[in-house]
Structure prediction request, 196 residues.
Amino acid sequence: VQFIVPDIQVFRRRSLLSGTIEILKILEQKGNCPSVVLTIVKSDGESQDVTSIRNLLAHISLKDHTLRVARYIIKFISTDYHGRVDQSAVIVALSHDLGKIPEFRNDANFKYAEGDHPLISARIVSEIFSSHPYSLEFIFDAIESHHRPTRKNESNYFLTYLKRADQAARSEELDGLIDNANAKWGELFLPREYLN
Prediction:
């Protein structure tokens, strides 16, 4: 709700409010799953990138990761565009990883995606906004491409900011997990015990 309230009239005027609320409901109801795909799926681009840190990131819920990405995308765009943020960027951030929800990954309707969570995510968002009066292909494209290498001359504004926000969120998450692990490790060894 924190992402909608400041611009609720704009979301409503652009016919984006009900779809965005539906995405938030999905995250609330099903977003407690890990923020990474735990099953090794060869075709899921991210699983190859994060195999070595996957178990650490599994402690971050999909909902927490997604909300962190949304905060970063708003921060980055707001900074670059003097406080103005396109509501479509919020939708991109909130929905980019919906395909990681196990229920969607196992749904026969999404089998065409062969386990690639960005494609499943784009399909879910496409269905949510299927009756939208305007084309939202730029949103679907950003979601589908957020783990693919950036192509030369790529100009999808939302994709650029989504990749940046996703990377910043993951960096923050890993820093927090590592700091927490170091703190716990430090508790195990009290130097005075070893000096006596």
In short: The mean pLDDT is 81.
